[in-house]
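Homework help board

Subject: predicted structure for assignment chain

Our instructor gave us this sequence and asked us to write out the predicted structure in token form, then describe one feature. I got the tokens but I'm not sure how to describe them. Can anyone check?
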Amino acid sequence: MKNSLLILVTMFTVGFGLAQEKNKKMTFEVDGKCDMCKVRIEKAALKVSGVKYASWDIPSHELSLIIDERKTNPMAIKSAIAEVGHDTKELKATQEAYDGVHPCCKYRENDTNDSEKHH
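My token output:
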């Protein structure tokens, strides 16, 4: 009985370990507007340990990533992005972080750029 239990526990542990991928591709939406946003978002994502690749597409707002799931997870990346002032569906940047982004990068609905205000 002990041997059966030990084998079962070992199989479960090995199976769980294999479920985490070294090079997992994922995408999620990040709010932003311009090239400065792109640099800021990608830089924040790449600073997270385990993120191997990050590319944010301006028109679609999609952040494409390759991560090592053994070192990070999506919420850690979303948290790093929120810290530099960008929202995701699950995590919103603090007002202080959002206020720190360049005026042309303001993407929330109640913010408009100066050219729109003067028309």
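Reply (TA_rk): Your tokens look well-formed. For the description, you could write something like this. The first helix runs from residue 2 to 19. That's the kind of observation they're looking for.
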